[in-house]
Amino acid sequence: MPQGQGQGQGRGRGRGRGRQAEPTPTTVHELSAWFAGNIADDWFTEPASITFDRDEIVVSGALPMPKIDVEADATIAANERMNSFRLTTRDDRIAIAARAEAHFQRKVSWAVTFAALRPWTTPWPACRL
User: Fold this and answer.
1) N or C, which end of the chain is more exposed by having fewer CB within 10 Å?
2) What contacts 123, CB < 8 A, 6 or more positions away?
3) C-alpha–C-alpha distance, residues 100 and 106, integer Å
4) 29: closest CA among 3, 52, 6, 7?
5) What is the DSSP annotation of 14-74?
6) Half-sphere exposure of residue 15, counting CA atoms within 13 Å on the CB side?
7) Which tens digits make up the pLDDT trace of 74-113?
8) Pairing outcome for strands 49-52 and 56-63
9) What is the SS3 assignment for 75?
């Protein structure tokens, strides 16, 4: 057999991971309703925003800006609010993501923004958790 053909590892048809099964068909409305029913009402200041593709669902929510005095550093306050949210909701987010991944056959990622500032004006872009 010529070199580079035959039964070598990683060569030939049907070897390797191949194409994964197609995920469950869904709509953004179905995903929004599903996550609204599973996310605690006090997590975000407005309904979570859902985007998805063939492989992943991204759940984005707006956190309230921390109340600070005029001289306080808003960047530090916002970062600490994100860290606190990440730590206090971790177990619940993992459980919700596991149920969603089993149901919709897509990975779930989480992101946060701040309600008082829109992503196009904020120095804190959506932060993936």
Assistant:
1) N
2) 75
3) 8
4) 52
5) T-SS-PPPPPPP--HHHHHHHHHHHS-TTS-SSPPEEEE-SSEEEEEEEEPPPP--TTS-H
6) 8
7) 888 888 999 999 999 999 999 999 999 999 999 999 999 8
8) antiparallel
9) helix
pLDDT of residue 73: 85
- Say which residues have a Cβ less than 8 Å from residue 60's Cβ, sequence separation at least 6: 48, 49, 50, 51, 110, 111, 112, 113, 126
Phi, psi of 11, deg, nearest 5: -120, 155
Task: Look up residue 46 and give its two tokens.
Answer: 């407005």
Model-level pTM? 0.72
Closest CA to 85 of 123, 111, 47, 118: 111
> What is the predicted pLDDT for the residue at 19?
52
Instruction: Please name the residue that has the structure tokens 């995920």.
Output: 23
